[in-house]
Amino acid sequence: MTRTLGSVRPKETSLHRRMWMFFQIAGLLALLLTVYIYGSAVVLKEANSLGRDCIPPHVSEIRENFRPKIAIVSFSDEGRVGLPKLSSPSPRARGFRGLMGMVKSNKISYAKMWGYDFIDARTSIDWSRPASWSKIPAIRSNLDKYDWIFWNDADSLVTNPIIRLESILQSVIGTTFAGDEDCHHSNCADLIVTEDVNGVNAGLFFVRRSKWSMEFLDKWWNMSSFIIEGSNKSGDNDALIHYINSLSPSEMWNHVSVAPMQCIFNSYPWTPTWKSLHRFIFSPSSYWKGAYSNGDFMVHLAGLDDKTEWAANIIQEIKPSSSHN
């Protein structure tokens, strides 16, 4: 049977209409998605002005007798001190290249403002494993000289220097900070961490001087089965998550405090990527608690490749408020 021209045209017209409707719907969805992504970025950047409290208002004033001795400890794995340079540094090391030189003065200035010590612990790096693991001996070798050590990775910087570390400690665990004898009958915690969508983050945390803390650091260091070589990940964070998850409820209660708000000292910049969008859709509360917003204490460039560019932009962004303060 021979098809006539008239019998083909209705089918073609119907197909064209369906295709046109498909492209219209796809274009509308793309527009809505774009608005959603960039609208989310605007909302999250203004989270604090929209009512988010990273530090509860009732602890903004530090108790007069609360004066622990605190050190801020950090290092960068971009250079091998006293050793030949690696011919092929890990992707993680390349990402940190030049970063400490940008953020070190920011942290030293903050430490001097409030009477903390800043320790560049790069000589503590053990090059037999990924350098990120060396935060553990860096903390351990200095802990006996301080009440608290605040560890922060090199890809972080202070964005609101008015917030003191005592305010953070006080908001999470109260005002107990001295030796083990003060923690027999109350939960004063030895380790203070934050959580992101993946769990506990090992980039920024507080450790209290105590017997438990020393044993914890030794056990964490000895979890060598978690070591990952030649990757953006080094395995120390996975080891920490495993260690904390394996604690009994009583030991967790007595020694570890997870801050209720990630943004209390470990905010992440919002990046409009498909991965971030997926996580934001399925875990919006995590992003609300942890997205970097104007007024946050610290920003942590976790998971970002162009860390130096991000750091330079943020330093430029906070300059007016820093100089004003």
From TrEMBL:
GO terms for biological process: protein N-linked glycosylation. The keyword NAD does not apply. This is Glycosyltransferase, family GT34. One of its GO terms (cellular component) is Golgi membrane. The chain crosses the membrane at residues 20-39. It is found in: Golgi apparatus membrane. Its main location: Golgi.
